[in-house]
Amino acid sequence: MAESLRAEFGRLLDVRDVRRVRRVAGDAWTVSVVLAAPSGDLHVADLTVDDAGGMSPALDGDDVIGAVRRSDAAAEGAGEPDAMAGFGAELGAEEDVGLDLLEDLEQPVEVRVAAALGRGDAASLQEARELLPRMLADHDQRGGTLLTMAVLEVKLGELGLARGYLEAAAREFADRFDLNALEKAAALALALDGPDAFTGSAVHTLLEQSRARLTPIAAIFDTRSFRELGATLRDRLAQAVTSRTLAPGESLVVEGDPSESVFVVKSGLVGVWLEKPSGGSWLVRCCFPGWLLGESSVLAAVDPRCTATLRAERVSEVWVCPAPVMRELMAADPGFAQRIAETKQLHRIDSFFSMHETMGQLDVLVRDDILSCLQRIESFEGEVTLSAAGEVPKVACLVARGGIALFEEGKTAPLAVVEADSFYGVRDAIHQMAPAVTAIALPGSTIAFFEGARLQRLCERSAENVIAVLERLG
Predict the structure, then answer these.
(1) What is the extent of the structural domain holding 294?
(2) How many other CB atoms sit within 10 Å of the CB of residue 201?
(3) pLDDT in tens, 246-304
(4) Rounded distance, CA 393 to CA 359, Å?
(5) The whole model's pTM is what?
């Protein structure tokens, strides 16, 4: 990026902040470009760079002049007298010192909650109830906080609230495949509801699903990707594949490092950690036995890089398949190559979902259900009508590249264009409503189609918050 700017602007512009952005079609980066002035950096623009190196929007001299003018206008505004300046100075410094002292003495909320729960009287429990929701902002501790809220409501006699918090906690634990914590939540649910009501409940279902998914894989050829390989290709892979055992917390690969192998989880649990735009990383899903990972190593044309950090969440064993051997198999078996490519696209959409402002609110199991509704991914060379005005759409769309133009009847100019990384038709497909516009895929577009009937059935068996999230998409 810096080299490209130098060719156009010399040393006038420079790159400062770079943030990874998860997109349907692959990774992209948001890059802050500044004018390196003697008085300090002047922000010019935030550009997006896709995985092929394409940059948008294009910068020109007007953008640089605009940055200078904005800086001058801000400097002139700062020089004007502030009518409110000095207001309240007569109050003196003693009150400020007192407020600062109180803030410094205030203990962290988790310490205050622990103290209130330890006291155990009615007033203290009420204090803890008011403080606990503040701790939900900590993504890593969210499940434990919800479980504590459930235990608290049991003590206060609010069993309905306790059951709600308990199910939410169980979903958080299931997302992370934290079986120990999930079993604690299940034990509390069993104590509250009794054996008959507990069997078949949401918490019981989550526990059984999690236990089943941890069953080790006996052979790599038992997995979907490798099951249909012929005998000759199986022999070639068997000679090259190796096994690696990971300790809890040990990284298999690190985001951004060269991607050199494909991995298949044999036993244990491997976490997928993504870098946050604001810094740090977070666990977006756990991969159980049978999952294929690291497919970037064989699908990227040049300099493949790891798109996530893979870390063992417990003692785990993985099969390691060297990228050159995988490419040989893919060249010899087009069906195998197609399965690997489909896996990559699913992982891209999953990463996009996990970082999406709305979809990210859903737990992993619900996102898996939505991914299971994926019907096909299709690219269009010319304009193609996806749904006509007045007709109930059979599919919902997620634009990966290009866009979908929406036309009112009799109009030649589009009413709007649904751009990349945006949804269209989700609510219409779920509620069987006929839109008043015709949707047309633009030339060069790639679109993921989700089967409307399956989305509808998903909503019928889902909680209200899941339906609300899907209704907001697009």
Answers:
(1) 220-355
(2) 19
(3) 999 999 999 989 999 999 999 999 999 988 766 777 888 889 999 999 998 888 778 88
(4) 21
(5) 0.72
